[in-house]
Amino acid sequence: MKKVLAFLTLILPFVPAQAQEIPAAGLPPIVQDQSKLPHVVILSMGGTIASRAKDRMNLTHYGDGPAVNPEDWLHDLPELQNVARVTTEDMREKDKAAKKKGDNFADIARVAHRLNEIAKDPSIDGVVVTHGTNTMAEVAFYMNLVVDTDKPIVFVGSQRPWSGISGDGPLNLYDAVRVAADPAAKGLGVLHCMNQYINTARDVTKTSAYRVQTFKGIDVGAIGFADPDKVKFYRAPSRKHTTESEFARTDLKQLPTVEAFYAYTEAPGYVIDAAVKHGAKGLVIDGYGAGAITASETAAVKRAQKKGVVVVITTRTRSGRVQEVPQRLKAHFVNGDNLPPEKARLLLQLALTKTKDWTKVQQYFDTY
Amino acid sequence: MLNPFAVARNVLGSLGLVLLVAGASAQAQELPKVRLFATGGTISGYADSRDMQYGYKPGTILPDKLLADIPEAAKVADLSYEDIAETGSGGINTAILLKLAKQVNAWLARPDTAGAVVTHGTATMEETAYFLNLVIHSDKPVVVVGAMRPFTSISRDGPFNLYNAIRVAADPEARKNGVMILLNEEIQAARDVTKTNTERVNTFETRDLGPIGFADEDRIVFYRHLLYRHTYKSEFDVDNLTDLPKVDICFGYQEGDRACIDGEVAAGAKGIVLDDSSPGNREAVKDARTKGVVFAQSDRKGSGRVLNSTRGEEAGVVTADNLNAQKSRMLLRLALTKTSDPKEIQRMFEEY
Fold this sequence. Notes:
heterodimer, A: alpha/beta, Rossmann fold, 4-stranded parallel beta sheet, B: Rossmann fold, 8-stranded mixed beta sheet, 32% helix
């Protein structure tokens, strides 16, 4: 018997396994006439939600199973047909050499370009973007700044692979499509939906390596819930986004180089010098406490400013704003508001496409 | 008996008042008009000894002293006050709520006013704030403020809270945000905030949804707009009312019997909020429904919505969304001033 099982596991890896939850109960009745339903497109940027392992107990080093193609989601979740007319597009990097290089801006630019096309396409009502959870918050924030649409765009992922035991992917994806299909989600900027919470792209952050409740708006919380009976919104973001954004329709293949640094006891300046030498036009320093940085960092930053480099200060406490204080005004440091450095970096990159004036950059950080 | 500290405090307070009046008259023309409506609470609590953080008398320090204590506020707003009550959270009753709502409405209806600040005990502050959120007819900021430590205590949080509340009430950007609660530099929406700790200064939290902004030193920042109905978009009006329908709460727990519901119905309740479920509820609700009593189903967990269910609908029980029991009670009281139809009341619970 054991031998048979071992043999089966050898030949089975390429049979796409269904998500673990689905067989537990029968399917709901599926509507036959979908013509009245909104059209939602799922753009796959991959991620854990698009990954499988051979073993369903493998929740940490998956990827040894066949990748999940977008059509597999539709196959595994026929109940999506009750929510929307769902189509899919595979936005993952197809070029093998580029893929090997890993994370790069080309992926982000490609999706931004496509989302701006969808913005103008009257046949599409909403978009779901799947993404790995590690950098999804900053990518969603980037889209929030450059996509010119009031259509719902909902980022979703999962903490456990599609093949994992008690996988969170299926319900997350189902909920994300519900939110993208909901007219109440229009005009709220780019959204994020996992674990039944709806968060804004600007304010959401990954806060835990493994837990399913990892995504939180640390300072200002969620704006709504994807509850089983309905999707409900309580709040809307006040800061500028999407249709109001000065960066809308940015369609660049490359952005000005901005690097981020961390403040800690004895944090040196030479890494900052090196970044400037390598062509950095902007720096984000994740300061401690209210936004303090070390003397060595300060000295390096001053050298950088002489070369026209713009400097933004964030706080590594991950909650609370970096406030305007006389010392930073005098030093011409831009206060990063309550953005984490990875988001401050993208906003600074976009800001530098418009201006090199730190006071103008400060206005962007005050309003976006 | 006054201790030397308290005497010094009172003298300083009187001096402050003089400065306040002088400052206000100089700048009255330019500064936004903000009025303090005082109801009492720990923020105006008095103890003989500055290490006493309990056992103090709430509502003892009168509003003139509260304002005189922070002369800096006179640079932010043209201040005045009305003394509505001098009590703690437990002493707030329908008469005080109605008086407060009417006086605040009258103040904000004046075209020359900017906003209102209400001092209140923290224990029931959230339900008073939500009540005001439903019955104030203005988009001008109303900020409810209190303190966790009495006026006489070391490291008292009251002065800074009150100063920040005045800043927010004077800020035109705070308009249309409904009634807000401000303690600990955090600006919270009245509908969503709750007191989560018996003692700490960070007691007010909005589970799930978070604060809507912050009273930071450099400026006041808002990150959120509210999407539900409140204040200037509310259909409720208490300006001509002298009383509100009686609504009580029944807590749900293992083996809870029908005595709570039966007793409240016998005492004249027109509505009952069920804070989670007791096994005895089903039969008692059925009987009370025949007498026209309206029920709202809330939940004791403190976050998340009560989902709409056909079972509840058939029993004539309204679901309370994510409102806690004490706020559901306020909304149900106001709903009952309009209708006793559960379907119509369900609509209100979904919109407010």
